[in-house]
Amino acid sequence: MRNFIIDTDTASDDAVALVMALRQPDIDVKAITVVAGNVPLSQGLQNALYTAELCCASVPVYAGCAKPLLRDLETAEIVHGDDGMGDIGLPLGGRQPAPGHAADVLRQAVNANAGDITLVTLGPLTNVALALLREPELASRVSRCVIMGGIGTGHGNVTPTAEFNIWVDPEAAKIVYESGMDITMVGWDISWQFVTFDADQADEIRGIGTPLAEFVIDIQKTLTEFSMRENALAGFDLPDPIVMAAAIDPSICQYERFRVDVTTGDGLARGITVVDRLGVTGREPNVDVAVSADRAAFVELLQRSVS
Ligand code: BDR
Ligand code: CA
């Protein structure tokens, strides 16, 4: 068994990533920690709890930070729906998280499984940064931290150069990127290029016919409309699931190692992952940056997860 911790601002693509991890027979998800991002913390918790229940998984789900370290929270209901899950009428209320704060749980889970734990982050990095501020040595105890965040190359989805998760809490991202952890970054550029699903491709997954297959497609309703309208895509894309796939099976992506720094300015200078491809800063490379992905292998993993 491999040990995972998943930190998530659970909305429609996070939920698919959770399904993928929770359905892997050889992965033990020690904890799901929730952070504010796509939706406020309370909604993200309900979405994570509902998804875990649908997977019949007895994984504990913990509440974390309700806002970024220094900034006001910016949410993305326009991307994922008012409830973050496509507003398709799911019963997303009334479930209880486990007691304890996500940042404490992250520390406990990493320390209890030092050297044998993969941390997968699917939202703003607030919870992880808080844990690292309290206990910087955690960085060396995480075997691999796979981050959905930033842009490896090309355009952003919040500003021309910034991706949502890093943009929401750039100070937290800077702490994590400079922590010395073994970081793999799968940016939004990998998502829209390799794992966009048009209507036929979505129907193929939904046609598997299980409740999970229908769930992972139906909750992308708002995301599909947004992605076609605002991102010029042929359908919805799945940023968090391709990151989870890279955590489950690293060979699904290809990587190059670069120095990556995070900007903490305002306006256009907010939350950019600056990838030093030519080594012009002369600084030690610190991140394995995904540069491409194997779509067929991803689809096969997704299909297996919902079958
Ligand atoms: C990221 O932002 C959120 O909208 C998604 O859940 C994903 O984590 C993509 O930029
Ligand atoms: Ca997310």
In short:
With 307 residues, this protein is an alpha/beta fold.
Describe this structure in words.
The chain has 307 residues and is α/β, with parallel strands linked by helices. The protein contains 14 helices and eleven strands. The protein has helices spanning 12-22, 41-54, 77-80, 102-112, 126-134, 138-141, 164-168, 170-177, 188-194, 199-206, 211-218, 221-230, 239-248, 295-306; strands at residues 2-8, 27-34, 61-63, 118-121, 144-148, 183-186, 196-197, 236-237, 253-264, 270-276, 287-293. The strands form two sheets. It has a nine-stranded mixed beta sheet with strand order 3-2-1-4-5-6-11-9-10, with helices on both faces. A two-stranded antiparallel ribbon has the order 7-8. α10 (199-206) runs antiparallel to α11 (211-218). The longest helix is centred in the N-terminal third of the chain and has 14 residues, at 41-54. The chain is globular, with a radius of gyration of 17 Å. Bound molecules: beta-D-ribofuranose and calcium ion. Residues 8-9, 11, 14, 38, 122-123, 240 line the site of calcium ion (CA). Residues 11, 13-14, 38, 76, 79, 122-123, 148, 157, 163-165, 188, 239-240 line the site of beta-D-ribofuranose.
